[in-house]
Amino acid sequence: MEKINEDLLFVTDEKTGKKRKATQAEIRAKLPELTEKDKVPIPKIQRLTRSLPGTGKRLRSETKQLNELTKRAHCNAENFLKYADKFKLPFSIDDLTPKLDCKSLQDQVDVLVSDDYPVQALSAQFYDKDDKPYQDWEKQFEGRTEADVEKLRREGTCLVNDGLTDDQVKRYHETVQLLASKKQPVVKLNDKRHLLTSDNPRVMRYETDVGTEEDQDPILKQERCGVYHLVHAWIQQAKIKDGLYISDGLTGSGVQVTAVHNHYTRTADIFIYISAMFEKIYPETYSKYKKAFKAGKWVEEDPGVFLGRAIVYKLQIFPHFDDGDEGPAVSFPCGYYEGGKMIVPQLKAKFLYNPGAVCMFEAYRIYHAITRWTPMIMEEDDTLTPGRIGTVLFCPKHSVDILKDQEPDWGRRTDFGRELYYV
Q: What is the CA radius of gyration of the chain?
């Protein structure tokens, strides 16, 4: 992992003369001003990549296409459950203690980020000790590394993709950059998941050949980075009694709100696909999430079933667990970058995590992180800027607790129970 910029994170207290953590305002005061040149640009595309199945007469209507998409997702998930390697952990997930001491966590991370540590390149399922007698977890690397997969490809072995298709990944990348160009990303400067490692953590730097001669070195450019929390219903921090609210990520100027709604519309088929996969892998949780989603749904264009969508736009991701989730979350990356492996210290696991890979796990009690990634050089024909974009789908626990017994559209009709009448 990268070294933290302590000059930004800490200040000397004028009264005591001792170092303390800086506030967001104190960190912001040390940073260069953001300029027009730093803004995320509009993608250089004429139309979005098509990601729905079927272009012939058989699947003319969008309804038929979405039905076919759901069937494919169910089939892929069933094949994953049937054929992907299954490993048995020597402990129960319930026994995990997310809050490891810092030294123990760092020691485990240091081992996993090493270039010598094997990277798993095939799909896998992990079950705790109370489940069926699957393979021992110490065998999780046998025949499953990047080198093993390359050997299989050379031998002509057919490998099946369990995640998103290339077209789905490309379309999602396009829609997120469109969103970011209309609603510029913002960094929360004291978020431990995205620690400050550069002199200007509000931007991502990358090289580009665009506009250069053949014998000229690439030009260094930079682009704003940050996190979007698009959440239909959650509590304000430490204010449970105040009830549910929509997140700030869903609000803004007319242009920004339109961009958010367009993002949901343009990615609907992708999230229908992911939700259908989730339904097969976590059927009971899916039913619980769906009921809460129907009651708390605020943005009509979202097909569900997750109340929250966090988009990490071109930030490094440090070891953390997502405290406050109700159950399993789903995550996937997109973009043009190198590196960015998924590491899970408590499972001693390191996974190839290229664009299109999908992780489903209990992120609220399992530590995870992304190894350092670097943006690729932007070429003349590239329509999108480089860098890594991570997306996490989740349901906040407090939200599910409040919404699980409410009827559909309860949140919108009653302002989450604040109004005595229905609209």
A: 22
Q: CA–CA separation, 131 vs 384, rounded Å?
A: 44
Looking at residue 396, what DSSP letter applies? B
Asked if 218 contacts 377 with a C-beta cutoff of 8 angstroms, the reply is yes
* pLDDT by 10-residue block (mean), the chain, 423 residues: 65 78 76 91 94 63 84 93 91 72 80 92 88 80 92 92 94 98 89 64 89 78 95 86 93 97 96 95 96 97 95 92 91 97 92 96 91 93 96 96 95 89 57
The backbone region for 409, taken as left when phi is positive above 0, alpha when psi lies in -120 to 50, beta otherwise, is left
178 burial via Cβ count (<10 Å: 0-12, 13-18, 19+): buried
Identify the residue whose tokens are 């682009």: 223
Tell me the HSE value of 216 on the side-chain side, using a 13 A CA sphere: 10
371-388 burial by CB neighbour count: b if 16+ within 10 A, else e?
bebbbbebeeebebbbbb
Secondary element (H or E) of residue 351? strand 349-351
Q: Which residue has the tokens 């408590």?
A: 346
pLDDT tens across 45-74, in order? Answer: 999 998 887 655 555 677 888 888 899 999
- CA distance to 172, 237, 326, 366, 415, per residue, from 401 (Å): 31, 16, 9, 21, 17
The C-alpha angle 378, 381, 385, rounded to 5 degrees, equals 35
Mean pLDDT across the chain: 88
Side chain identity, residue 172: Y
